[in-house]
Design brief:
The protein has two domains: 180 residues, Rossmann fold, CATH 3.40.50.720; 119 residues, N-(1-d-carboxylethyl)-l-norvaline Dehydrogenase, domain 2, CATH 1.10.1040.10. By secondary structure, the protein is of the alpha/beta class. Helices cover 51% and strands 11% of the residues. 30% of the residues are buried. An eight-stranded mixed β-sheet has the order 3-2-1-4-5-6-7-8, with helices on both faces.
Length: 322
């Protein structure tokens, strides 16, 4: 990739200057993009520049910027109209409240205001694009959901969720643009409520609430298990690789030994989703393509060293632990 100073800068339009809109402004500006940020609330527009600067100063304190916070802040322009934000944009990121009727109205405006080849993306957490974009929108084939982690400048995963009417070209271009902006896009193959992020988070939260309700554990103890147990491990590897490395013989061996127990736990909650042999074979094939079993011991050692680095980091005092 060419250095920032030799590339024609990308342009992002951001609609909504709440916490997610400000965070996206930081993401794109940090990657060298020119950003125009709009909110219909004049007070939000007035507050946004200071919020951007404060968050960038925090990132600078932790040495997470490659240039000065002032240089990055200078790339963010707050504008007074939606049309100004969308003009000349390669990508427009809508960050409005989670209301289908509001998003429907915004996307109609964006389709008129943005360049014909601009990607129109919603940061929706649960609403699929087909819930607020209909067949009356001329440019619907470039519309999709791009749901971030929060805040995206620290949690870089972003879910790219095309609607049935989104073109493959638009989805591929969106993935490329977000990757260019330093994010980690994942392609959600078809629309489901909550996408991947919130379905996984929701599964944990549902069980956590049930464990409190049933008197099994306190809120504090459940948070401790996540913070000191699953959280550190999942920050290094995901749930499939975790169980693949936890059991000699890999994920197929784990499914054989532990699958019935997980099925019973699901049945306690009225959920019947057994790990069928066909499903286990599909997951095992993906894991073996990523990690042949003859490299299993080496990868286990790598995992342990990553956890050691994390443990060392967590023990190191920082200048500001508040």
């Amino acid at each position: 990739m060419a250095p920032l100073e030799t590339r024609v800068p990308r342009r992002a339009g951001i609609i909504g200057a709440g916490s997610i809109g400000v965070a996206f402004a930081i993401c794109f500006a940090r990657a060298g993009w020119r950003v125009r940020l709009y909110d219909p609330d004049a007070a939000r527009r007035a507050a946004a520049p200071e919020e951007v600067a404060l968050r960038l100063d925090d990132l600078a304190c932790f040495q997470l910027l490659e240039e000065s916070s002032g240089a990055i802040t200078a790339r963010v322009e707050v504008v007074d109209t939606l049309e100004a934000a969308a003009a000349e944009a390669d990508l427009v990121q809508e960050c409005a409240p989670e209301r289908a009727e509001l998003k429907h109205e915004i996307f109609a405006q964006l389709d008129r205001a943005a360049p014909a080849d601009a990607i129109l993306a919603s940061a929706s957490s649960f609403l699929a694009a087909s819930k607020f974009v209909d067949d009356t929108l001329p440019g619907r084939t470039r519309c999709l959901v791009a749901h971030p982690g929060n805040p995206p400048y620290l949690v870089p995963v972003i879910e790219i969720v095309p609607a049935p009417f989104t073109s493959e070209t638009a989805a591929a271009r969106a993935i490329a643009l977000y990757r260019e902006a330093g994010m980690k896009p994942v392609h959600v193959q078809h629309e489901v409520e909550g996408f991947i992020f919130n379905r996984l988070q929701g599964a944990v939260l549902r069980e956590a609430y049930c464990l409190v309700r049933d008197g099994v554990a306190s809120v504090e103890d459940i948070d401790t298990v996540m913070r000191e147990g699953l959280g550190p491990r999942w920050s290094v590897i995901g749930p499939f690789e975790t169980v693949d490395l936890n059991t000699r013989g890999g994920i197929a061996s784990h499914a054989q030994k532990m699958g019935p127990s997980y099925e019973r736990m699901g049945a306690e909650r009225g959920q019947h989703d057994p790990w069928t042999p066909e499903l286990v074979e599909q997951v095992e094939a993906a894991r073996r393509a990523a990690l042949p079993l003859d490299q299993w011991d080496e990868r286990v050692g790598w995992r342990d060293r990553q956890l050691m680095r994390l443990a060392r980091h967590r023990k190191t005092p920082t200048r500001d632990d508040s």
